[in-house]
Amino acid sequence: MSTAAPVFDPWSPEFVANPYPAYAALRATGRAHWFEPSRQWLVPHYEDVSALLRDRRLGRTYLHRFTHEEFGRTAPPPEHEPFTTLNGNGLLDLEAPDHTRIRRLVSKAFTPRTVERLAPTVQRLADELVGELLADGGGDLIAKVAEPLPVAVIAEMLGIPLADRHLLRPWSADIVGMFELNPTEETARRAVQASLDFSAYLRGLIAERRTEPGEDLISALIAAHDEADRLSEQEMISTCVLLLNAGHEATVNTTGNGWWALFRNPGQLEALRAAPDALLPSAVEELMRYDTPLQMFERWVLDDIEIGGTVIPRGSEVALLFGSANRDPARFDQPDELRLARPDNPHVTFGAGIHFCLGAPLARIELAASFGSLLRRAPGLQLLSEPEWSPGYVIRGLKSLPVTL
Question: Which structural domain, as residue segments, surrounds residue 335?
Answer without folding.
Answer: 67-294+331-404
